Amino acid sequence: MSYIDRIIKSFTVNSAAKILSIVLAIFLFAFHNLNMLKTKIFASELQIEGLSELVIASAIPESVSVKLRGDSDAIASVSASDIIAYIDLSEYYEKGTYRVPIQIIKGGATLDIEPLEITVEPFDIKLQLDKTVSKNVRILPNIIGAPAPGYGLISGSVTPDQATIEGPSSLMDSIAFIETEPLDISGRYSDFSLLLALVRPGQFFTILSGLTVEYSAKISEADIEKEFTGIHVSAANLNGNFTAKIVPESGSVKLRGNYDSVERFVPNSDTLFVDCSGIATEGSYNLPVNVKLAPPLTETYYGPESVTVTIERR
Questions:
Q1: 224-252 tens-digit pLDDT
Q2: pLDDT tens digits, 278-289
Q3: What is the per-residue burial (b if ≥16 Cβ within 10 Å, else e) of 161-190?
């Protein structure tokens, strides 16, 4: 038997067992290599390509989850910037609702890694495409806080008072105005003017006109109201031969005026009074109550409106 015959015979004897051994060895080798692969997951910004005349009119994720599977040392050097995740909208020409697949482009460190598995989650996204329209809307200042005590915001205006916005036609009817950035007027006590940035009314809209407006405000002392109680009702112009007993003997008054005048007010003996100048004999009288105030204070309410006055000789 020649040398070649002996080699052939060695392969054919118990061939089934030998084939099984080879298959098992290949499987074990592949399984070992598979176990050596590691996984890396990171978020990748979702880019939008091919959008022309239509606009997106529904919420979509800003990023997607990208999973890499490969040699642990190799994928360790991969960063989020090496994978581009995007949706291509260049083939969509009519408004409607679509489910668009998310695609990826390998770059950077991923180009030299083999084997490398790349999966993205979610696989696709559902979005709504709509035609874009524009319109003019009012601009309203977003005022927060209050002026200094005793002062009020008399008036405020923005220039210009309208802006042009662009967005999906299906959502445009819901936008009647746009606001400025918040402006805190806490503690202010004088007129002022400044520039304020405009705030987009939503992620699907764009402001086509200027992005800032001038806001002018007038602030001055404001009238306030405050009630004072327990004020003694006095008998004015009473004949010196008589004494007067008043029931009820005290009342209240609500004052209106600028902050300083109201806060500094102190009731005196004739703030609330009854006029006894016409009384010449003893007895009980029902007399109207009068209020005496110094400008610029005025009363908005006082009580009681009348009292019972009992007159007796001394």
A1: 889 999 999 999 999 999 999 999 999 99
A2: 899 999 999 999
A3: eebebebbeebbeeeeebbbeebebeebee
The CATH number of domain 11-122, selected from 3.40.50.360, 3.20.20.370, 3.40.50.1860, 2.170.120.30: 2.170.120.30
Take residue 123 and report the two structure tokens written for it. Answer: 């696989």
The count of other CB atoms within 10 Å of the CB of residue 289 is 19
Class of domain 131-221: mainly beta
Q: Is the pTM of this model over 0.70?
A: no
CATH 2.170.120.30 fits domain 224-313: yes
Q: What is the mean pLDDT of residues 12-21?
A: 56
In angstroms, the CA 219 to CA 259 distance is 14
Query: Phi/psi zone of residue 263: left (φ > 0), alpha (ψ -120 to 50 degrees), beta?
Result: alpha
Tokens 């001394």 map to which residue? 314
Strand (E) or helix (H) holding 36 = helix 15-36
Q: Determine the Cα–Cα distance for residues 38 and 65; give it in Å rounded to an integer.
A: 16
DSSP string, 47-82: EEES--SEEE-S---SEEEEEEEEEHHHHTT--GGG
| 179 and 165 Cβ atoms separated by less than 8 Å | no
